[in-house]
Amino acid sequence: MVSGGGLAEILNPPCKRFWAVDKVVLAYLALTGALIVGFWNRVPAAGFWFAVHVVCAAVVVAAVKRPGRVSGVFHHWYPLLYVSICYREMSILIPAIRGTDADEELEHLDFLIWHAHPTVWLERIQSAPFTEFLQIVYSLFIPAVLFVAWRFWAQREFAAFRFYAFVIATGFLASYIGYFLVPARGPRFELRHLQHAPLQGLWAFAILQSSLDRLESAAYDCFPSGHTELAILAWWGSRKLSQRFSKVYFVYAVCIIFSTVYLRYHYTVDIAAGILLAWLLILATPPLYRRLS
């Protein structure tokens, strides 16, 4: 693993230049900002969201041009904040600009592949303890992805941290583009009338599910499965930490992929798209990172 150097050197870089992740984030902000301008009369609070784009871009430029301890920490960690803002924005842009969804087509593809609806078929193996376990696995998605970044930071492997941040930020933003191109809300809405019984957990299930529903119910965030894509990318990144972490993250990735269908959040074609996107990013991000750097 390549070390990133001492903390003072990392947080006060001698060269005031944009990092690879900055270029990806700024390009995404420019793209979605252009969408807002192009559909100004259809996007709710278009002026507000365009201002958010301008401010976010300006803050990144300021962090690059005025390096220091505070701006240095921000420069490393800001993609976390920005991808969450961009996720929220997609719940506004997709219904305003697309005005349609692909749930019926995705559900039909699933049925053609399996000759059944997977979320309905999986009712036969449901149990409260298993449902509770998988809901916890699913809900730990963001902490699991961020834990790899935190380990790099704690070990002062700042070069590895920056590459992992680039991969993860690119993965999130690529999935958002997929949401826009193929908007869908998922089988928990589309196939609700076919399910014979609601999912039941033990203690934390209802709280976790209702919390996620409040955060995600307005989003068209099924295709591709971001949970699948980012879990695979986190596993790939964890291999640079240790074999032990890699094995744990591999098991976690398998569990979260299964949970997305079992818990009725995704169609299986979403899973396939998430796996494909993760594979493409694993192939493309190392040369892309070198080129953008």
Short key terms for the protein model shown above:
293 residues; mainly alpha; 2 domains
- Count every beta strand, where a strand is a DSSP E run of 2 or more residues: 0
The overall number of domains is 2
What structural class do helix, strand and pairing data support?
A: mainly alpha
What's the Cα radius of gyration? 20 Å
Verbal overview:
The chain has 2 domains: 7-99, no CATH class; 101-293, no CATH class. The longest helix is centred in the N-terminal third of the chain and has 30 residues, at 69-98. The relative contact order is 0.14. The chain is mostly helical and 293 residues long. Helix 12 packs antiparallel against helix 13. It is built from 14 helices and no strands.
Task: Describe the structure concisely for a colleague.
This protein is mostly helical and 293 residues long.
Question: What's the layout of helices and strands?
Answer:
Blueprint: H1 7-11, H2 20-38, H3 46-65, H4 69-98, H5 103-114, H6 118-121, H7 128-139, H8 141-154, H9 158-181, H10 187-190, H11 205-216, H12 226-238, H13 243-262, H14 268-292
